[in-house]
Amino acid sequence: MGCFGFLKMMMFVFNGIIFLAGAAILGVGIWVKVDSGSILGVLGKIDNAPAELTQVLNVGYLLIAIGVLLLVIGFLGCCGAVRESTCMLLLFFIIVLVVFIAEVAGAVVILVFRPLANELLTKLGQAAVQSIKKDYGENADVTGLWNTTMTSLHCCGFYNSSDFVDSPYYKHHDNQYPPQCCAVSDSVCNQTAATITGCFPKIKKLIEENTVVIVGVALGIAALEICAMAVSMILYCRIKSKGD
Fold first, then answer.
1. Theoretical Cys-Cys bridge with 182: which of 13, 31, 148, 189, CB 3.0 to 4.6 Å?
2. What gap in Å lies between CA 116 and CA 109, rounded to an integer?
3. Chain centroid to CA 140
4. What is the pLDDT of residue 211?
């Protein structure tokens, strides 16, 4: 197998993986939009939530869009390499280049508007706590969604167990917290026993502990995109020269 054949094979394998990843992300995006018990559903039920939160609630659509984009990129890369189509390879190069530029621009925006993100999270926390105090234990939808989230993530409330003080559940259960807030669920879950951390601090800690991994993955994806563009352009030029 010569260098040209090796590049074709690598292009096919690489884009085959991208195609499968796109299918998986598309499936997750559809699941997020359909599953009413997800944490996004909890956020969507919060009264007085900041207006900016509507952008976060569109994450399902974002995942679907990313999944479809990856499916298209994987298809163009695989077929372009196998069929030796200069049109497909050029289109593949252009799409990956646009995605790469968008990722760089997105990273810059995140760094520049980081204080705005912190302000949004503060508003979200206030709205979430107000929602718990108003509806938890009385509104079946809000109660069920929070129960599902706390059970899945092994957390208690948005910040901590104090979020449930003065909620309908707290008043109707002799000043007790939900069982998810206590390490031993079959005991009386009072202020002393409620030791489970809040959902937001737990998610934030998880992200902070895996910052290096997240950055590494982002850099790895960027490197793969650059390699993919280079290989597609090499194949494009080689096929075009053969045709001439």
1. 189
2. 11
3. 27
4. 77
Q: Is 206 exposed, middle or buried (0-12, 13-18, 19+ CB in 10 A)?
A: exposed
Kindly report the length of the chain. 244
pLDDT, tens digit, for every residue of 141-163? 888 888 888 888 889 999 988 99
Give CA–CA dist 99/91, Å, rounded: 12
pTM of the model: 0.60
Residue among 193, 199, 201 nearest 151 (CA): 199
Mean pLDDT, residues 7-11? 84
Closest CA to 29 of 70, 53, 71, 58: 58
Task: Give the DSSP per-residue string, 5-73.
Answer: HHHHHHHHHHHHHHHHHHHHHHHHHHHHHH-TTSHHHHHHT-TT--TTHHHHTTHHHHHHHHHHHHHHH
Which residue(s) pair with 194 in the sheet?
182
**C-alpha–C-alpha distance, residues 158 and 198, integer Å:** 5
Q: How far apart are CA 135 and CA 131, in angstroms?
A: 6
Reference 109, options 118, 117, 120, 121; nearest CA is 117
**Is 80 exceeded by the pLDDT of residue 51?**
no
CA angle 125, 31, 58 (to 5 degrees): 45
pLDDT digits (tens, 9 = 90+) for 61-106: 778 888 898 899 989 988 888 888 889 989 999 998 998 898 888 7
State how far the Cα of 45 lies from the Cα of 4, in Å rounded to an integer: 55
Tokens (6 digits) for 220: 């790895």
* Rounded Cα gap, residues 174 and 142, in angstroms: 20
